[in-house]
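Practice problem 4.
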């Protein structure tokens, strides 16, 4: 009888372990192929996204349609916004990576910004009226943080093929393409670094909402 009970317990534990491994693998596949979750670490995209928000990011939106002006994108900033060798050691990196995977701590290599320039665009700040110009046309940016100017820094860039010009909605505090002017790459981010598009917030519960796409139109 005791032997039967021990076998039953072993089978029970094996089933639990198998179930946990199966769920983990399924979740990993989903997050690497379709939908991932990211933690918002800063104020740079206020009022759309607040510090501490968790967002679901679609990895497939740009597979069927190109990235367009106005899209909010999540991207890997290594090699542009952050150094490629920004590790903390194997053990610490593993612990941080686990927290990032669970969406509990920010990933300092991952950024969320808005696309203001795609290939062929000339983006300039600012027009006589103080607005951002795209291809010579001043645009009104309804998503800007209240009280922020389009940019305190004057610039003019033309976006080459395969690159994007990105800016945060809270312009006064955002580290974005403007911050990298004069650096290698000139603040332009490769489209290959884009992970996906945030499409809904999932935490805190009181802030769950779908993030609509805002088209920024210019000739």
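Answer key:
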């Amino acid at each position: 009888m005791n032997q039967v009970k021990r076998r039953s317990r072993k089978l029970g534990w094996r089933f639990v372990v198998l179930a946990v491994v199966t769920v983990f693998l399924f979740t990993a596949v989903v997050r690497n192929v379709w939908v991932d979750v990211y933690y918002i670490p800063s104020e740079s995209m206020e009022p759309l996204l607040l510090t501490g928000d968790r967002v679901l990011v679609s990895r497939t939106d740009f597979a069927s349609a190109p990235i367009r002006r106005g899209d909010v994108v999540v991207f890997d900033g290594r090699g542009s916004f952050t150094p490629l060798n920004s590790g903390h050691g194997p053990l610490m990196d593993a612990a941080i990576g686990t927290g990032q995977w669970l969406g509990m701590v920010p990933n300092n290599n991952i950024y969320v910004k808005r696309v203001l320039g795609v290939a062929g665009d000339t983006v300039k700040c600012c027009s006589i009226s103080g607005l951002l110009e795209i291809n010579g046309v001043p645009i009104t940016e309804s998503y800007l943080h209240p009280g922020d100017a389009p940019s305190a820094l004057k610039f003019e860039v033309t976006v080459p093929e395969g690159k994007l010009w990105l800016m945060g909605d809270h312009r006064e505090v955002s580290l974005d393409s403007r911050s990298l002017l004069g650096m290698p790459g000139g603040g332009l981010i490769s489209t290959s670094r884009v992970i996906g598009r945030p499409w809904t917030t999932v935490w805190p519960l009181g802030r769950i909402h779908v993030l609509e796409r805002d088209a920024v139109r210019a000739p």
